Structures are given as structure tokens and as C-alpha cells.
Amino acid sequence: MTVADFSKLPILLEATVDSLKSLKEETSDWLSEVKSTISSLENDYSITIGNGYGPSKSHNNITEVSIYRTHIALPFIDVLLENIDRRFNSNAVKILTAMSVFNPSLLPAKEDLSSYGVDKISCLGDFYGKPAEVEFDGITYSSTPLLNKDDLISEWAIFKRALLQERDEIMKSKSLEKAPEFQEVLEELKRSAAYTGIFSETFKLIDIMLSIPVGTATAERSFSEMKLIKTRLRSRLTEQNLARLMRIATEGPELNEINFSEILDIFKQSNHRIIL
Prior knowledge:
Structural class: mainly alpha
Distance between the termini: 29 Å
Strand content: under 5%
Helix content: 55-70%
Strand order of the largest sheet: 1-2
Number of domains: 3
Shape: extended
């Protein structure tokens, strides 16, 4: 599983927004390539692009590039900017940026560790430590808080020291010049049963962070697998079995790692057999 480096989020977000806004400028270079692309498409496929397109129907002097810019490119960019603003509002950016507190490469030296990350952990505790409220049909429903803020802050004072220790031990044992990925450090921490008991609230927060999608590749891959699994001949496949097969296809082992003989033996010994 990939964990995004949320510490870079504000910079990357600002750069993305600026890039999209620059594409809307009249002098933007990328628009000059549109006309040649349109001409190539018209020649290759014997089609006409732009004629009778929207408002241009009554303006014969409007070029294909102008039509593309006015009726396709600019509206599309505006929608992208609106989605970014809605998805990454100031509060969302604040929460995601606070999660960078777990980045092993950002941990300071041991003597400077006492005050490290307290404000960010407190911010995350405020957000996930209060019940979420949803209004439906005039009635407000409240959910149970995902974690206890006070316990989280108490755990953080010890957890960051354990995180620093594990990071340094991994770097020393593997002769690494830079800090290992957070997943690697987390695996070492979870090997200790004592840690999982002591840092219960912290691990809840980490599970939330790991569940945040950083891309659409997983969802797109799932839909692709679904099309391959639920074919016309398997249209009666139940949702439960479809979900199981999709999980195996997307998260299961490679085919060359599967012991089919062992699977057949388990199936033979089973009294409750399900025909897929």
C-alpha cells in the first residue's frame, strides 16, 4: 500500500491550481497545438471537427481552436478547479498535512523530540475525536468518535520516541543513507504486542491514514477485474461471491504462488461446497 507524503500537499496543490489557471490564459502555448491536432484528425479520419458546434453554428469565422478553447477546454478546466477547491478545502488540507507527522524522515534529533508533532496530533485528535453529525429529514444523527483525543496525545509522547528508535535501527541494520518508508517502520512496531496495546489510539489514527486513497488506480483496476470476472456466462454470480473473487484478483497472490493441489484438498474435505 502506498502512503502519500502529505507534507508536500500544500505546495503540490498550489502548483497544480496555478498550472490549471495558466492554461486559461489567452497566450497559453498549448492552445497553438490544438489546430494542428484537429487538422491531423480531420485528414486521418475524413471528418470535420467544430462545424455546427454549439454557438459557433451562427459564426462561420470562428476557428476550430477558438471553438475548442471556448466550449471544451475552458469549461473542463473550470470543473477541475471547482472539484479541487471542494475536495481540498482549507480544513481538508490542514488535516492531511497534519498526517505528515508520521513521516520518519521528518523526525528531529532525540533532544528535540519533546515538542515535535504535538500541534499536529492535537489537530488530528480534534477532528477524529469528535462525533460526526449528519442531518437527514430534519433529524441530526451523531456517530461515535473514531478515537479518544486525550489518550492519543498521551500516547504520542511515547510513540514518537519508539518511531525514532525503530527508524534508526532499520537505517543502521540496512546501512541506509536516508530514512525508510513509514510502512517499513510501522511493520516493525506492530511486531511487538506491547506496542499494539500501548498505542491503541495511535494505531487507529494510522489505520485511518492508510485508508486514504492517494489515486484512482485501485478503483479503476477493480472495475477492470469485475468486467473479466462477471461475464455474460456468469451473470448470476451473487454480489457476495463477486466481491470475494474481486478481492482475490486484486489483492491475492500471483498465480505461480498458489498451491492448487492444497486448495483442491481443502475443497474435497469441505462438507459445505459453494458452486460459483
